[in-house]
Amino acid sequence: MSDTQLLTAPEVPYAAPRLSSPHEHLVRASAHLWRVQDVRGRVLGHLRILADPLGLRYRAERLHLPTGTFRLVGDFWRADDAVAALRNG
């Protein structure tokens, strides 16, 4: 009998999306997740990249501290639109 080992490919992190607004910046939280912070360092929410058959989608989320889960704000085709939803919501 032979020993076989199943190996999975390592997860490759995406590069941080470029934002057009100088008022927010991204801080990596994981391979596909960034914290969106304003110029004072306040966390507005999170930006997650999702693979879609038509291209990359950007999901705006907020962390719900009592449950430790993310709440969906919306899915967008542009990172700037997702950040705007966090800024204005």
Describe the structure.
The protein has 89 residues and is mainly beta. The protein has one domain. The chain has 1 helix and 5 strands; from the N terminus they run E-E-E-E-E-H. It has one helix at residues 79-88; strands at residues 24-30, 33-38, 43-52, 55-64, 69-76. It has a 5-stranded antiparallel β-sheet, covered by helices on one side. Strand 2 (33-38) and strand 3 (43-52) form a beta hairpin. The protein is globular.
Task: Describe, in short, the structure shown.
The protein has 89 residues and is mostly beta strands.
- Main sheet characteristics: 5 strands, antiparallel
**Gyration radius, rounded:** 16 Å
Poorly predicted tracts of residues: none
Summed over residues and divided by their number, the pLDDT gives a mean of 89
Number of helices: 1
Layout of helices and strands, plus pairs?
Blueprint: E1 24-30, E2 33-38, E3 43-52, E4 55-64, E5 69-76, H1 79-88
Antiparallel strand pairs: 1-2, 2-3, 3-4, 4-5
Features:
mainly beta, five-stranded antiparallel sheet, 1 helix, 89 residues, globular
